[in-house]
Amino acid sequence: MKRLAPLLLICLFAVFSLGGCASKSEIVKLPRPIGTIAIAGFTNPVFNWELLAGYLPQEGKPIKKNVLQQLDDKMVGVLSRHNVTGYARPAITRQCQEIEVFENMGSRREAAFAYWLKVGECMAADYILVPQILFWQDLRGMQKADFNIQPASVVIDLYFIDVNNKRIVRRFHFDETQQPLSENMLNAGTFFKRGGKWVTAMELADEALENGLMELGL
């Protein structure tokens, strides 16, 4: 039986690695939008009324500003890998984000949507991509050890808004908390694709942006 254990692990690695590759091909890539696009800087809503949809895992838990800056940089990097050019970068769009303010326009979520429309109009853009980080928990502990670990956990929403027609045309939701292989064999393909180790929250965010932008056609 002891000799069979390594063989079983090798077989599982092969099967789930293939499964992991297959899952990437299943990502639906929409046609690239035609028109001017503004990429908003990442925001970190701390209350549910600041969201365009859904609910926060925890209200009142802000994320460090340097994480938002890193996410902005990562967004630009992924767009570059996808050969997306000619868009307004987060550093530019943030200027309009700082100018515009939330107003009392009916429900608070209506106000949040109206705010992002105004930012898009301020940028004279046909579309605006609004990325929001809803939850951020970084890895604590040794990456290769399976004890005393606080796994990375990330919740990200990407909204693609048609400014001219005033509607959300596409949305991508990412909610991932890494689990050890011993707790969830169904995620073995993803586990091995990550090198068989614990990953950081920023590495999870990279996965979210890679897959999310592709699904949004960017």
TrEMBL record:
<protein>
    <submittedName>
        <fullName>Putative lipoprotein</fullName>
    </submittedName>
</protein>
<keyword id="KW-0449">Lipoprotein</keyword>
